[in-house]
Write a structure and sequence with these properties.
The complex is a heterotrimer of chains A (about 80), B (about 130) and C (about 130). Chain A has one domain. Helices cover about 85% and strands about 0% of the residues of chain A. Chain B has about 130 residues and is mostly helical. Helices cover about 75% and strands about 0% of the residues of chain B. Chain B contains five helices and no strands. In chain B, helix 1 packs antiparallel against helix 2 and helix 2 packs antiparallel against helix 3. The longest helix of chain B is centred in the middle third of the chain and has 31 residues. The termini of chain B are far apart. Chain C has three helices and three strands. In chain C, strand 2 and strand 3 form a beta hairpin. In chain C, helix 1 crosses helix 3 and helix 2 packs across helix 3. Chain C is globular and about 55 Å long. Classes of the chains: A mainly alpha (about 80), B mainly alpha (about 130), C alpha+beta (about 130). Chains A and B meet through helix 1, helix 2 and helix 3 of A and helix 1, helix 2 and helix 3 of B.
């Protein structure tokens, strides 16, 4: 149990909270913001795992994750708005 | 080098705890717009601290370039995604908190009912 | 464009990330304190803020900078005349939010305009000593 493990646990707990918000969310935008949090948590998780596993390769994956997350956030918002632009 | 690794670990822990605070805001804050502010806390501050901790833990010029790129994209994602989601929520009629003081957008929308368009979307070339 | 205004422009480009990091930190502490302590002090409001930005780049940067600060969020933006509608979590009054957004705008325009920035609209009705009227 090191500092890094506590950080991993904190991010996992926040992803679980975001999942609860997706299940519960009264409006579609709530669900969208919940999945945004899950994606940001995934980026942080990969970065922390890169330190935990002592590999330098995962930094590249972090860059790719942020790029995919950008597209995901925009398209999710467009999807939530429906046909209303 | 040990102290650098410890500093990186502590920065990452601070980032993860900031992330947890932002996610707790999703449970605690009253309406969708305030919850999006909580998303900004975790997406911008939390992820930025984690990425800076990664750089402090494994310092090299190549890592600095990659982390700077990831940081810029992450901040842009948080800002653009946050306002796109807020607009989507407003357009689909997400409920506002009871404590909302005033709403300038509603006034604009009532003036604009005949054009059937949201005031944020009217372009000048549509009006003329 | 004088030498002094170009110097202010370069300093403004360097200053913008520093100001952004400071604003992010202060906003995160404020929203985090709100989340962690019991009770609710939030007073949300949607405020219409007229801007001095002209180009598309300035308006979209402005909307993104406001969204990036925890506690304030851009809901809609209009191109002509340049206006953003801001959702603020801590709105004591209209003018406090407008002053806050105009502070961000000052920092942005200092970085995007080499010829110097126009005065704030609410400062126009002040005399030279900065007093009202």
């Amino acid at each position: 149990m090191s500092i890094i493990d506590i950080a991993l646990a904190a991010i996992v707990v926040s992803m679980i909270i975001a999942t609860y918000r997706i299940m519960r969310g009264p409006s579609g935008a709530d669900r969208g913001s919940g999945s945004d949090v899950i994606f940001f948590g995934f980026v942080g998780l990969v970065a922390i795992l890169g330190v935990r596993l002592e590999t330098a390769l995962l930094v590249d994956i972090v860059v790719v994750c942020t790029l995919v997350g950008f597209l995901a956030a925009i398209s999710l918002a467009r999807l939530t708005a429906g046909g209303k632009r | 080098m040990i102290s650098g690794e410890l500093a990186g670990d502590l920065l990452m822990l601070a980032g993860a705890l900031t992330f947890l605070v932002g996610a707790l805001g999703m449970l605690r804050l009253p309406d969708m717009y305030s919850r999006l502010s909580g998303v900004t806390v975790s997406g911008a501050s939390g992820t930025a601290l984690i990425l800076i901790g990664l750089l402090v833990h494994q310092p090299s010029w190549m890592n600095m370039l990659k982390v700077a790129l990831a940081l810029v994209i992450q901040l842009a994602t948080t800002a653009v995604g946050g306002s796109a989601m807020a607009r989507a929520g407003y357009l689909t009629g997400a409920p506002k908190a009871d404590s909302t003081l005033f709403d300038d957008l509603v006034v604009e929308a009532e003036e604009d009912t005949n054009s059937e368009e949201h005031p944020g979307h009217t372009r000048p070339d549509n009006d003329s | 464009m004088t030498v002094k205004s170009v110097l202010i422009w370069i300093l403004g480009i360097l200053w913008l990330p520093v100001y952004l990091a400071y604003d992010l930190l202060v906003g995160s502490l404020r929203v985090g304190w709100e989340i962690l302590t019991p009770g609710s002090q939030i007073a949300p409001a949607f405020v219409e803020v007229p801007l001095r930005c002209r180009t598309d780049f300035e308006i979209s940067m402005m909307a993104n900078l406001v969204s990036l600060t925890p506690g304030s969020l851009t809901v809609a933006a209009r191109h002509d005349p340049a206006t953003v509608w801001v959702h603020a979590m801590y709105a004591e009054s209209h003018s406090s939010i407008i002053r806050y957004v105009h502070t961000i705008e000052d920092n942005l325009l200092r970085a995007t305009r080499p010829e110097g920035i126009p005065p704030r609209p609410e400062d126009l009705d002040r005399d030279e000593e900065g007093q009202r009227r």
